Fold this sequence. Notes:
Helices cover about 35% and strands about 10% of the residues. By secondary structure, it is an alpha/beta fold. It has two domains: about 130 residues, Aspartate Aminotransferase, domain 1; about 260 residues, Type I PLP-dependent aspartate aminotransferase-like (Major domain) (Aspartate Aminotransferase, domain 2, 3-Layer(aba) Sandwich). Strands 2-8-7-6-5-3-4 form a seven-stranded mixed β-sheet, with helices on both faces. Strands 9-10-13-12 form a four-stranded antiparallel β-sheet. Helix 1 runs antiparallel to helix 13, helix 3 packs parallel to helix 10 and helix 4 crosses helix 5. The two termini are about 40 Å apart.
Amino acid sequence: MPDITNLDYARQLDAEDELAHFRQQFVIADPDLIYLDGNSLGRLPRATQQMLADLTRRGWGERLIHGWNEGWIDAPGRIGGKIARLLGAQPDEVIIADSTSVNLFKLALTAVQAQSPRHKIITDDLNFPSDLYILQGVAQAAGRPMTIQVIPSPDGIHGPIDDLLAAIDDDTALVTLSHTVFKSGYVYDMTAVTQRAHQTGAMMLWDLSHSAGSVPVHLNDAGADLAVGCTYKYLNGGPGAPAFLYVRRDLQAKLGNPLSGWMGQRNAFAFSLDYDPEPGIRRFLTGTPPILSLSAIEPGVDLLLAAGMDRIRAKSARQTAYFIALFDEWLAPLGFSLNSPRDLSRRGSHVSIGHAEGWRIDQALIQEMGVLPDFRQPDNIRLGIAPLYTSYEEIRTAVSRIRQVVEEKRYEKHGRDAHTVT
């Protein structure tokens, strides 16, 4: 048995890694920084720098308004079609539009409206809180009384799968969940939940924000109705990049866009005063696409397609398992808890660890130790592993430094007040 704590072992794993060369495709301004927050904001692809420079100089600077007829107007569907390949969907089922929250509102509201007279929306307490805020707005806008039933997790880590499936009934209009949970990294069985929703006639909407680009997703195979997700995490699309939405092909003509805008109009430049939506996925567009930020998504998606989701998932599985093995050796004896599933089939690409001094440990790592994770209340230090640029040596060094912070009590010099962005 190899000594997993040995630095040479980590370097051997890197030498054997068939995806290691992708790291060179990203901007790494500080080679000494161990960046483990790609599950919040992915690194900048080098190709994105070059593309944006050309887009601003030539596309905007020289071509001006001609750019709309030279690819800009079709960019939401073209890039969405590439993302569809990462999600197990058809190219005409995914499009870039708005933010994740706005897309969630659009799809949740149209689903609820299509499910009259049902009165229930089901989710869980592991869902991203913003999704719950959106659902509360959907319930108010639905035009009839709606109840949001939030199923509690048994341990704050694993999805409440049994209770969730039992709660879905003939009065359920919509079931909506984060496929990969933002705190713990728990991954739902998409097919099982979707099938249960369909058995009762409910619709299913998935938030793929922590899955897209890190976990294989099979929307078509699962029969999923609807999905949304962001592009700035594992897709490396840039801070605040526009989001994507998915609508299964056979539902597109049946569902409306409650935020009907001119980009979803059948013939936008006819400027008719009556709304006549596009028949396909473009009907779910609303306003003018933000071309600079939208275009920045494409190079990161191209890298993921080149690497292949199967290979990305295989490396993610090995790296998260390696992290957990080091956790058991070095961190569990120091009072840390593992706040992510041990079962690989139920674990995404980020691992959460808990400690009573989690916030101050997190700050010591960032300010003193050259390790950049993030933190989620009440005690979660989240370590995002992005297989295209995270190395095994970085994982080993990060866990070693976490141990050092606790053993040397370095966290004690840091305050308890949280920052606005954690």
